[in-house]
Specification:
Largest sheet: 2 strands, antiparallel
Structural class: mainly alpha
Helix content: 40-55%
Number of helices: 5
Radius of gyration: 15 Å
Number of domains: 1
């Protein structure tokens, strides 16, 4: 377990978003292992792949691309997160961006979680992305690396 006085992550690389305090920035911006929850599908070429850390993180924590895809696909199935209009056809691959999502994420979220206030809809989305992050890390072979992040998430309730 991480001591309260020990810094688990760089405070410049986390964000407080609805439903998830201290959420990691995406891996392409230097996010920690939990950021895999915001990563794209590995079988598609990306225009900004030069700065993508997904494959490096997967290798480091001991999770194959195939395992990563299966976990995200299974999660999408459980959550009803398949949508033909979002990138890679699943919200499991959607990122953290607020405003300016290049896909149709926000409209899909509004249809899935109709709330009067869109922040409540985002809160539901980020809570579920947090659960997905924990699931991805629990599947990693290098538990010595990811365990502090799992413990942090399991012991720190988000709003």
């Amino acid at each position: 377990m991480v001591d309260d006085n020990q810094m688990l992550f760089d405070p410049k690389l986390v964000r407080n978003v609805p439903g998830w305090k201290n959420a990691p920035v995406p891996a392409c911006y230097g996010g920690d292992y939990r950021s895999l929850t915001f990563c794209c599908h590995p079988d598609y070429k990306l225009s900004f792949s030069y700065k993508c850390n997904r494959d490096w993180i997967l290798k480091k924590i001991g999770l194959t691309k195939e395992e990563f895809i299966k976990i995200k696909e299974d999660f999408s199935e459980e959550q009803g997160w398949y949508a033909p209009t979002v990138c890679f056809r699943s919200l499991s691959y959607c990122c953290m961006r607020r405003g300016g999502c290049p896909g149709d994420r926000d409209n899909v979220l509004k249809a899935l979680y109709p709330r009067k206030n869109f922040d409540d809809t985002l809160k539901e989305y980020f809570k579920r992305k947090r659960i997905l992050a924990i699931r991805l890390l629990k599947a990693a072979r290098r538990q010595d690396l990811v365990k502090p992040y799992i413990e942090f998430e399991e012991n720190n309730e988000s709003d």
